[in-house]
Amino acid sequence: MPRALAKPSKPEVTRSAALSLIARPGDGSVAGRKIALLIAPGVVADSLTKLHVALLAQGAVPRWVAPRLGAIATAEGGDLQADASLENEPGFLFDALVLPDGAEAVQALACDAHTIDLVRDQYRHCKSILAVGASKALLGQAGVPEQLPGGASDPGLVITAAAEGADVDSAINSFLKAIPGIGTLSGILIRHRFDDPVRMGMMHLGGLWVFERNPARFYARPKWLPMHRRKQKMVGMVGLMALLAAASAQERAQWFTIEGDARHPVADVIEVDIRSLSHDGDHRSMALRVSRATRRSSWEAVPYRSYTAVVVFNCAEKTARYKSLAFYMLPLWEGRVHKTSSYTADEVRPMRFIDLQPNPTARIVNAACRTPLDNEDSNSVRKL
Fold first, then answer.
1. On the chain, which terminus has fewer CB atoms closer than 10 Å, C or N?
2. In the CATH scheme, what architecture does the domain 255-382 have?
3. Domain 21-200 grouped into CATH 1.10.340.30
4. What distances in angstroms separate CA 341 from CA 211, 231, 302, 331, one per listed residue?
5. Where do the domains of the chain lie?
6. Residue range 77-107, pLDDT digits in tens
7. Cα R_g (the chain), whole angstroms
């Protein structure tokens, strides 16, 4: 590609500390940090007010965040004044997040897609999260794993089953230590965040999550910096190729929704790709993708929130089985595939959604078996 300028000008600045995320690691306190305390009607306020007082005492800026502004009734009979709403305060504006206890409050928050977006944004931006009591369910709906990929516990994710007593006091102390700003670059936050590819390896490109292979080097390895120009080009090229490949695959696919609404990550969604339909005798195969409202496990105990699959249909017997599966930890097929499985004809993994009512299995089988193919006679297909 020709140069835009025959003789490029020499840059005045080659490196600026003012633009660095690690040039000013902080003084080890939480002073000035902005913390979101999520609330909804029916929230258990005791533990949250205790944390609110502790944050104010250390100079932090706690905010009561709710689906709407104004008074929010608590389980104790009082109210909390929400000074920020889920619509006007995106998750990346906060340095940490607190999820409340209270079954009624959690149910109300779970029905609001803004809640799931907030939890995801906090996790993806490597912010600390405290989940108290029943709010642990919100982590599952947002696809937030409780452990790091290697199986170790996540120091930035604090979960307590109790809403009061010594357990919640201990959880509050752990949460305060995990808030960004505690420690130095070699401390707990930098170490567990930037070495975690699920946390730090995602760049949002056109709605697609592209994973960089070794995100730790950007922040935790200063010795890498002399080679940064060459490696940035390599990373940019890999990300662009992945984006173009994904976009091309989406263009080829023609997804039809059988169940749910793909705009909502907390819904059960089933889609099929009619263009992928092919046949071999009495058997047909078709691509299918599924996103579940909550985290589930496969036959082999593989955790997932969504998956893509190739399904083989026996049109004579009106049955369907999985031929291959690709599992995602996040809903709506976001992020990377963390596990794949393939099955032979003898390893039958039936496709059936027995927990969904009405059950969409028959509709999917009919769609696969009754759709005419280019090399088939439409009259013979109708006989199926």
1. N
2. Beta Barrel (2.40)
3. no
4. 21, 33, 10, 18
5. 21-200, 201-247, 255-382
6. 999 999 999 988 888 888 899 999 999 999 9
7. 25
Q: Comparing 42-46, 127-131, 218-222, which segment has the lowest mean pLDDT? A: 218-222
